[in-house]
Structure formats: structure tokens, C-alpha cells
């Protein structure tokens, strides 16, 4: 979810997970606040945290033109 997103991009991402004490804590709604701008190619790091205190630092690489302003969030669950 983003507010004020404009542009066309291709993106890849990877991340590190912190404060994961038990696997069930991974499931939840991760939120962050960010402002990203990409012209031709670039990258960004977004720190997200869920209601269980699990934190993910997501490193993304994008190409194209993209502008994103505002809050962002995503629901993630481990498929069982």
C-alpha cells in the first residue's frame, strides 16, 4: 500500500529479518514510512516492523521512473 505513487518500474528485493523469536511471530502487517525517488536505476532500503516486533530491512533495486510518498505497508504470512 502506498500513498501518492506515480511511475513505471521493474523491481527486485531482498531483506534481513530481526527479532524473530518464534516462527509464528513472522505473520502480520508490516508498516513503514518512506519517501523514495528512482530515475532510470537505483535502490532503497525500507525498514518495516509488524505488531509482534519482527523487523525486516528490505533492500530493493529498481529501474525506470518512480516516485512514492507516504506510508507503506504489506501483510506477510508464511505459507504452511
Structure description:
It is a single chain. The radius of gyration is 13 Å and the shape is elongated. The model is unreliable at about 1-5 (pLDDT under 50). The protein has one domain. It has about 80 residues and is an all-beta fold. Strands 1-3-2 form a three-stranded antiparallel sheet, with no helix packed on it. The chain has no helices and three strands. Strand 2 and strand 3 form a beta hairpin.
SSE run: EEE
Mean pLDDT: 73
Strand content bin: over 45%
Tell me the number of helical segments per DSSP (H or I, 4 or more residues long).
Answer: 0
Which blocks of ≥5 consecutive residues have pLDDT under 50? 1-6
Rg, alpha carbons: 13 Å
What is the overall silhouette?
elongated
Key phrases:
80 residues; mainly beta; 3-stranded antiparallel β-sheet; 3 strands; 0% helix; elongated
Write the layout of secondary structure elements.
Elements (H helix, E strand, L loop, with lengths): L2 E16 L9 E22 L5 E22 L4
Antiparallel strand pairs: 1-3, 2-3
Quick synopsis:
The chain is mainly β. The protein has strands at residues 3-18, 28-49, 55-76.
